[in-house]
Amino acid sequence: MKTKALLAAALLCTACTAQTQQTNNTTATMEKNGKALIVFFSHAGENYAVGNIEVGNTKIVADYISEQTGAEQFEIVCEKDYDMPYMKLIEVAKEEANNGELPAYKGDVDCAPYDTIFIGGPIWWGTYPQVMFTFFRDHDLAGKTIVPFTTHEGSGLASTVSDLRKAYPQANVLSGFAIYGHEVRTGKAKVEKWLKGLGY
Ligand SMILES: Cc1cc2nc3c(=O)[nH]c(=O)nc-3n(C[C@H](O)[C@H](O)[C@H](O)COP(=O)(O)O)c2cc1C
């Protein structure tokens, strides 16, 4: 109960900035040419606001992006098993974030051939899940155009854009796109509109 109240407070704190971020996110135009890759993390199973889902919310957005842009995908899959009830997962994720853990992920991708890297994930405690930071540690994306996106339940982009700019000071990190997780299944048009604004 205490945890639920804590997470609700976290959602409220960041929700107020979400709207502004969502309206500012299509201002940058980008090269339509160039090879694009989508790097994302998404958690299927029991989740907030959408129940027990077979395909994660962020994965659905990644698929919309691939459909419109032709971008290839690399899914960050944690070595660690996150198959657990939502209330347990938020505790595990909080611990990881507080301790700055960098859990290992499965497989890898060579980012060198890509000019544009879409980076997407759910908001977990105000930013991307820790395993995504493991990926950032392992990949130098200097000189690339990075397009952040998130799915969330009130926090919008939260600190993902600033975290990416910190991880990649030599990259061109765009302002990003955020959509509610419970909206993605009916929100394809929103994603398409955002991509159109980027020149796709
Ligand atoms: C561990 C955990 C922490 C979360 N923390 C937040 C948060 O701080 N802010 C927020 O808006 N949503 C939060 N959420 C909700 C998710 O961001 C949202 O449901 C997202 O769409 C899940 O995407 P996915 O299905 O691709 O994993 C959290 C969910 C989980 C499981």
Structural class: alpha/beta
What is the CATH topology?
Rossmann fold
Q: How many beta-strand segments?
A: 8
Query: Which stretches are poorly predicted, pLDDT < 50 over at least 5 residues?
Result: 1-6, 8-31
Indicate the mean pLDDT: 87
Beta-strand residue fraction: 15-25%
Oligomer state of the chains in this structure: single chain
Please describe the biggest sheet, giving its number of strands, its sense, and whether it closes into a barrel: 6 strands, parallel
CATH architecture title: 3-Layer(aba) Sandwich
Q: What best-fitting shape do the alpha-carbon axes yield? A: globular
What series of H and E elements makes up the topology? HEEEHEHEHEHEEH
Contiguous helical run count:
6
Task: Count up the domains.
Answer: 1
